[in-house]
Amino acid sequence: MFYRPEDGHGLAHNPFNAIVTPRPIGWISTRDMDGHDNLAPYSFFNAVAYVPPQVMFASTSSKADRGDTKDSVSNIRETGVFCVNIVEYAARDVMNKSSAMVDRGTDEFTLAGIERAECETVPVSRVAGAPASLECRMTQIIQLEGESNFAVFGEVVGIHMRDDCLVDGRFDVTRFQPLTRLGYRDYAVIKEVFNLSRPDD
């Protein structure tokens, strides 16, 4: 099968998200200028550079009380900071609950019953029990083609790692089993890893 996105795919569901998988989930925490915390998961998320460490996530929809975007991007526009919390399999249900489309100012930490802790370098809450959290200062927000498509880039200025995830000097993802996003309503969990050496190693 071949199709041009502009012509449509003719399938019951859009296959694009199922093709580009698995995707890590960035559980983005922000705080608005009035002090309200916000927490929302984004599967268009990844690390993009080592030195300095940088990450990005993209928001692709809007809500009526935020104009052209959603709470996360709007808050970052105002404050210039955010935190990326890594999602483990054990947090799948509360993560999903925090994805609800709710009114501006609603605190998803409280809504989903998620314990929070204050970040060290930016004025934002983080998920207290997350395997890792990346404190970020926004470097740029790029408006992408299409309606309400924004990519947010940030420099990582502080990193939290849960002690039980550190094994022999390495951050061991099998200790917490990262949750990943697939297409449709599908998710996957990483339970096993293997090593490949590069040909020039």
UniProtKB/TrEMBL annotation:
Q: What is this protein called?
A: Flavin reductase family protein
UniProt xrefs under Pfam families: Flavin_Reduct (PF01613)
State the superkingdom. Answer: Bacteria
PANTHER family, sorted: BLR2425 PROTEIN (PTHR43812), FLAVIN REDUCTASE LIKE DOMAIN-CONTAINING PROTEIN (PTHR43812:SF2)
Q: Which InterPro entries match?
A: Flavin_Rdtase-like_dom (IPR002563), Split_barrel_FMN-bd (IPR012349)
- Ranges where the Flavin reductase like domain occurs: 18-173
